[in-house]
Amino acid sequence: MSEYPCFLFFILIAFSPVSYSQTVSEDGGESRMSEMMWIQQYNRHNGSNKPELKLDTAWLTVNSSLNFDLELYAQNDECWKCPLQWVATFKQRNVTTILVNTTHATSLALKRNLSNDHVEDICPFHKYFVDDADYWIFMNWTTYRNSICHVILANQPQSDLIPLLVTLGVLLFLRGVWGVLKYLFRNRNVQKMLCCFKSAEIADPQPLENTSTFTLQPYDGSVKDHNSMENGSMDNGGVKENGTTEKTAEPENKPKQRLRSLDCFRGFSLAFMIFINYGGGGYWYFKHPAWHGITGADLVFPWFVFIMGTAMALSFRSMLKKQIPRYKLLIKVIRRSVIIFALGIMYNTSFYRIDLTKLRYPGVLQRLALTYLILGIVEVFCARGEDSHQDRRWAPVRDLILFWPEWVVNLAILGLYCGLTYGLPVPDCPTGYTGPGGISEDGKYYNCTGGAAAYIDRHILGLDHIYPWADVKALYQTQFSFEPEGILGTFSTVFTCFLGLQAGRVLMYPGHCSRIKRWIVWAVITGALAALLTQCTQHEGWVPLNKNLWSVSFALATSSLAFAFLTLLYVCVDVFGWWDGTPFIYPGMNSIVIYMCHGLLGGCFPVTWKTEMIHWKLLIRDLWGSGLWIFVAYVLFKKKIFVAI
């Protein structure tokens, strides 16, 4: 059973390197020495005959001196409760090399087929193979009688994390150089030394006029008076250079500016999503799990949903303060949802000439549209324009008490999701089944993949209108595919967005400490609930983490990490001004344009190109592709082009 530590929900451990160890023989070192010398000699003369290494593979060579064939059965640990599958046959008195997967640990077993159709287990073992490693097993009568397979590592492969660490170091170095250059060019003494003209001074763009859209209003790069930050805005004026407060006649007309941390959060999520969609350097932890579990790739979509909810809280409050009628807000919600849904359909049909009888209805933008529609309608009737009841005894929790009807509605929506998931009868499947089906559990629930969620999608959307290439179908050998953006998961996605909206409501409280403490409390509560539901395990908990189903534990765990990350950005960007949020604020201001363009032009040069399947080359290509769209967003920002729906 694969265990996930409880602190998974606060620090994602999917990025942690695995500690590898070499299996060493317990019998005499002289025998092992002679085997290593034999391996070196064999590799010198016959190494070119080995199969070519591919991405996330290693060599496994079996040197058999037995007078009968050996059969190798194996199964990747990612496949939960799956039986071992036949992999290869090792001929008697022969040396045979095969490729083995290195993404997850693997259960293997060497077996012998006897004449009476009986299969004899010789040596089962469990191994986490390393990229580009050269593993050997020597099978002779001694190892056969003892039923022991000694796995020898014949080389010292480099860690596949090295390209990631080097790339991260280079990016941080370049960002540091850019920061130093900006400081030098903005320093007057340095300008005089360099004989720079005042017109050449590099300055941050001036703030734009307030709008009711979800775009960022850039500010002048300085950290404002802490007490001037209210309702998610920062005053651009009101503080003199000497630190005294300047009173204004009409404070309500002072230009306001949104918190940069929110747009930095949105832009980072979008940039990371593009990097993931372009391949993530070929690393398995930048890919979605086939079923239960969580990786870095599983964060980007829920984080984008979360920050959409945060923006909704600020936007609705702003529009109500301007006394915009609620029926106009409702029309705006419906219009925006329809446009986003239509863009999602266009995105699904942009890669090839589509057969309308097999058009995929769901998708990322479609789920965003439905989530925004449901929560937006609730917010139209429940949102408040002013912060009231500040003198009551329960004022410290007024973000909960004043909006109790909205909590009731959203908990009811979450209850509907749980009721259908665990209570809807599915023919020939146990009620409440949420497993992968297929060959899992010896095929006992072969056609039950996803339980009620898949059943609803198949009967409402039809098999021809759902995602046909789900990873669960390939790994678990299921008969049907599974729609990861299906109907039922939309309800739990609404709750993720609602938690993001709650993060935006926290901004009604004045003062940095008050906001930070509340976000941290929310991170702890949601993370603890997720840990409880999963029992800190990958598969065995009451409600495992599952992005395909958007399980309740998944919604809580990703929201916990979102609260924590938002707090970190708020402290670094808006409180202390250690970082101005660049370059991620730029895609955050034109998120819909950048998302559509990255998909429509994702296969074109110079966005991407074909390269060798090597991690460092794939990493450079995919980082280039995502960086290119950040640059496009920067150009749009400089030209003051902002597309909002």
Question: Which helices and strands occur, and which strands form pairs?
Answer:
Elements: H1 29-46, E1 57-64, E2 70-76, E3 85-90, E4 94-101, E5 106-113, E6 119-127, E7 134-139, H2 141-146, E8 151-153, H3 162-186, H4 188-193, E9 233-235, E10 256-258, H5 260-277, H6 300-321, H7 326-348, H8 364-382, H9 398-401, H10 404-423, H11 452-460, H12 471-475, H13 488-505, H14 512-534, H15 552-575, H16 585-589, H17 591-600, H18 615-638
Parallel strand pairs: 1-7
Antiparallel strand pairs: 1-4, 2-3, 2-5, 5-6, 7-8, 9-10
Helix pairs in contact: 5-6, 5-15, 5-17, 5-18, 6-8, 6-13, 6-15, 7-8, 8-10, 8-13, 10-13, 13-15, 14-15
Low-confidence stretches: 1-28, 196-253
What is the β-strand count? Answer: 10
- Compute the CA-based radius of gyration: 29 Å
Task: Give the overall pLDDT as a whole number.
Answer: 82
Shape: globular
Brief digest:
The chain is of the alpha+beta class and 645 residues long. It has helices at 29-46, 141-146, 162-186, 188-193, 260-277, 300-321, 326-348, 364-382, 398-401, 404-423, 452-460, 471-475, 488-505, 512-534, 552-575, 585-589, 591-600, 615-638, and strands spanning 57-64, 70-76, 85-90, 94-101, 106-113, 119-127, 134-139, 151-153, 233-235, 256-258. The strands form three sheets. The protein has a four-stranded mixed sheet. Strands 3-2-5-6 form a four-stranded antiparallel sheet, with no helix packed on it.
Model description:
The chain has 645 residues and is α+β, with helices and mostly antiparallel strands. The protein has three domains: 18-153, Immunoglobulin-like, CATH 2.60.40; 204-242 and 254-288 and 582-645, no CATH class; 294-579, no CATH class. It is built from 18 helices and ten strands. The chain has helices at residues 29-46, 141-146, 162-186, 188-193, 260-277, 300-321, 326-348, 364-382, 398-401, 404-423, 452-460, 471-475, 488-505, 512-534, 552-575, 585-589, 591-600, 615-638, and strands at 57-64, 70-76, 85-90, 94-101, 106-113, 119-127, 134-139, 151-153, 233-235, 256-258. The strands form three sheets. The protein has a four-stranded mixed β-sheet with strand order 4-1-7-8. Strands 3-2-5-6 form a four-stranded antiparallel β-sheet, with no helix packed on it. A hairpin with an 8-residue loop joins strand 2 and strand 3. Helix 6 (300-321) packs across helix 15 (552-575) and helix 10 runs antiparallel to helix 13. The two termini are 47 Å apart.
